[in-house]
Write a structure and sequence with these properties.
By secondary structure, the protein is α/β, with parallel strands linked by helices. It has three domains: 173 residues, FAD/NAD(P)-binding domain (3-Layer(bba) Sandwich); 150 residues, FAD/NAD(P)-binding domain (3-Layer(bba) Sandwich), CATH 3.50.50.60; 77 residues, no CATH class. Helices cover 28% and strands 25% of the residues. The strands form six sheets. Strands 1, 2, 5, 6, 7, 8 and 19 form a seven-stranded mixed sheet that branches. Strands 10-17-11-12-13 form a five-stranded parallel sheet. Strands 14-15-16 form a three-stranded antiparallel sheet, with no helix packed on it. α1 runs parallel beside α9. The longest helix is centred in the C-terminal third of the chain and has 19 residues. The protein starts with 7 loop residues before the first strand and ends in a 10-residue tail after the last helix. The N terminus and C terminus are likely disordered. It binds flavin-adenine dinucleotide. Flavin-adenine dinucleotide binds next to α1, α2 and α9.
Length: 433
C-alpha cells in the first residue's frame, strides 16, 4: 500500500460503501492531483439494495458483492483498517491498527450500525428456526430458503422504531413473500401475513402511504402500527412487541411460524461518541443542504450516517455526493460552499413479482419522478427498473463517479405531482414468476 505512513492526506474518506466510493470517484475525476486516502476495513463491496432481490429469489447473493479493490477508483489510496476515534480539533483520525492520520478535509460516510442486541433473543435466533432478516450480512439467502419451505401459518414482518436503511425494504420482502405463499398450493389459504411496525403508517409520504395501504388491503395483509419488536423467543416462536397506546406502553406477545425482522439501527458508536455526533441521537451533525459539519468546516458527511430528514438510501447518496464534492472543492479554492442537496431520495417499493412503486421524494415530502411518469402508481416498468436498471446504474455509473447531471436534478424539481393522491391506484393481480 502506498504511504499512509506519511500520516497526512489532503482528503480522508471514512468508509468505502456507496457514499465513499462515489465521492472518491467524483473527486478523482474533478481534481486528479488531490491526495485521497480511503479507510475501509472490508475486502468486499456489497450492493445492499440487491439483498431484497436475493431474499425474494430473484438474484444470487454473489451478484450483490464484488472485490473492494475492483470498485475503488484508481489513484485513491486504500487503507484496509477501520477508524476507531475522531479528533476534529486536531484534524486527525485514529484507526484500529493504531495509526494517527491527519487530514486537510474529512468525509465521514461509514454507514450506520445495526443494533441486533437491542432485541432480546434475536442474535441467538437469527438465521435459524424461521427467523430471517435481509439486513443481516449473508441473511437474505436464508429468507429465500424460509419462503420456499414455508408450509403456512402466521408470517410476521417487522419495522423498528429507529430510522433504517431504505424504509420500504421491510415491506418489499413482505409483498414478495405473500406472492410466494399464494402460488404454493394450499399455503396461501393457510397463511396470515402481518406487518408489525413501530411507525404510524406504511410510508412517510402520504401519497405513497395511500397506494401501499391499497396494496396491503388487496393482499389482506394485517397491519399493526405502533408495535415495536423488543424480544423474540426462537424456540417457542414468539415475538414480544411494545405497543404504544393512549394509556402508555403495553407488552403484546404474538406467536409466529415465520418472522422477518428489520432491526433497530443507529449511528456507529465511534461517530456517536465523538464531537461530530449529534447530542442525543449520535448521527453525524451536518447542514441538511450543504452537508458540511455544523461545527467543523473541513468535515463533510453523507450517506446513512448523516442526520438528514430524508430516507437513508443509495439513491439519496447519488444526490448527496456531487454536493459534497462541489462544496469540498469550493472550500479548497477559498470559496463558500454553495451547492445544495434538496433531500432527494428514492425507495423502489416492490409490491409483487411484477410491480413496484418508485417512491421518489425530497425534503418537502412530495412525490417527484425521474422517469416522466406519475410515481404514485404500481408499474411493471418500475419493477424492471428496480430489478435491472438500478443495479446496472449502481455498478457502472454511480460508483464510477458519473456526474449527477444538473438537468436531471432540475427535472426532478420541476416534476412535482400535487394531484397524485387522486390518481394513486394499485395494480391488479400481481404474480410470482
Ligand atoms: C435490505 C436492504 C435494502 C435496501 N434497498 C435499497 C433500495 O432499494 N434502494 C436504495 O437506494 N437503497 C437501498 N438500501 C440502502 C442502501 O444500501 C444504503 O442507504 C447505502 O448503502 C448507504 O451508503 P453508505 O455509503 O452511507 O453506507 P454503506 O454502503 O453501508 O457503506 C459504509 C461503509 O463504511 C465502512 N465502515 C463502517 N465502519 C467503518 C469504520 N469504523 N471505519 C472505516 N470504514 C467503516 C463499511 O465497511 C462500509 O463499507 C437498502 C439497504 C438494505 C440493507
Amino acid at each position: 500500500m502506498p504511504s499512509s505512513s506519511s500520516r497526512f492526506h489532503d482528503i480522508v474518506i471514512i468508509g468505502a460503501g456507496a457514499a465513499g466510493i462515489t465521492v472518491a470517484s467524483q473527486l478523482r475525476a474533478q481534481a486528479p492531483d488531490l491526495d485521497i486516502l480511503l479507510i475501509e476495513p472490508s475486502a468486499t463491496h456489497h450492493y445492499q439494495p440487491g439483498w431484497t432481490l436475493v431474499g425474494g429469489g430473484l438474484m444470487p447473493m454473489e451478484d450483490t458483492a464484488r472485490p473492494q479493490r475492483d470498485c475503488l477508483p484508481s489513484g485513491v489510496i486504500w487503507l484496509q483498517d477501520h477508524v476507531t476515534e475522531l479528533d476534529p480539533e486536531q484534524n486527525q483520525v485514529v484507526t484500529a491498527q493504531g495509526l494517527q492520520i491527519r487530514y486537510g478535509q474529512l468525509v465521514v460516510c461509514p454507514g450506520l450500525q445495526i443494533n441486533w442486541d437491542k432485541i432480546e433473543g434475536l442474535t441467538e435466533a437469527l438465521g435459524r428456526d424461521n427467523v430471517a432478516s435481509n439486513y443481516a450480512p449473508q441473511g437474505a439467502p436464508y429468507t429465500w430458503e424460509c419462503l420456499q419451505n414455508f408450509r403456512g401459518g402466521q408470517a410476521i414482518f417487522t419495522h423498528p422504531a429507529t430510522p433504517i436503511k431504505c424504509g420500504g425494504a421491510p415491506q418489499k420482502i413482505m409483498y414478495l413473500a405473500d406472492d410466494v405463499f399464494r402460488q404454493k398450493s394450499g399455503v396461501g389459504s393457510r397463511t396470515r401475513v402481518s406487518f408489525y411496525s413501530a411507525e404510524g403508517s406504511l410510508f412517510g409520504v402520504p401519497e405513497y402511504a395511500q397506494i401501499l395501504e391499497g396494496v396491503a388491503e388487496r393482499r389482506q395483509i394485517e397491519t399493526k402500527f405502533r408495535h415495536n419488536l423488543v424480544a423474540l423467543d426462537g424456540r417457542r416462536r414468539e415475538a414480544v412487541f411494545e405497543q404504544k397506546t393512549d394509556q402508555g406502553m403495553e407488552r403484546v406477545t404474538v406467536a409466529y411460524d415465520f418472522i422477518h425482522v428489520a432491526p433497530p439501527m443507529g449511528a456507529p458508536d465511534f461517530v456517536a461518541q465523538s464531537p461530530l455526533g449529534k447530542a442525543g441521537s449520535g448521527w453525524l451533525e451536518v447542514d441538511p443542504h450543504t452537508l458540511q459539519h455544523l461545527r467543523y468546516d473541513n468535515v463533510f458527511g453523507l450517506g446513512d450516517v448523516a442526520h438528514l430528514p430524508t430516507s437513508k438510501t443509495a439513491a439519496a447518496v447519488r444526490g448527496q455526493a456531487p454536493v459534497v464534492v462541489q462544496n469540498l472543492l469550493a472550500l479548497r479554492r477559498g470559496e463558500a460552499p454553495t451547492a445544495r442537496y434538496d433531500g432527494y431520495t428514492c425507495c423502489p417499493v416492490i409490491t409483487g413479482y411484477n410491480s413496484a412503486v418508485m417512491a421518489e421524494f425530497n425534503y418537502e415530502k412530495k412525490p417527484i419522478s425521474s422517469f416522466y411518469l406519475n410515481p404514485t402508481q404500481e408499474r411493471y416498468s418500475m419493477w424492471l427498473a428496480k430489478r435491472y436498471l438500478l443495479p446496472w446504474l449502481y455498478w457502472n455509473r454511480m460508483l464510477k463517479g458519473a456526474p449527477f447531471e444538473k438537468e436531471i436534478l432540475d427535472q426532478w424539481k420541476a416534476r412535482l405531482f400535487p394531484d397524485a393522491a387522486e390518481t394513486a391506484s394499485p395494480l391488479r393481480s400481481p404474480s410470482a414468476p
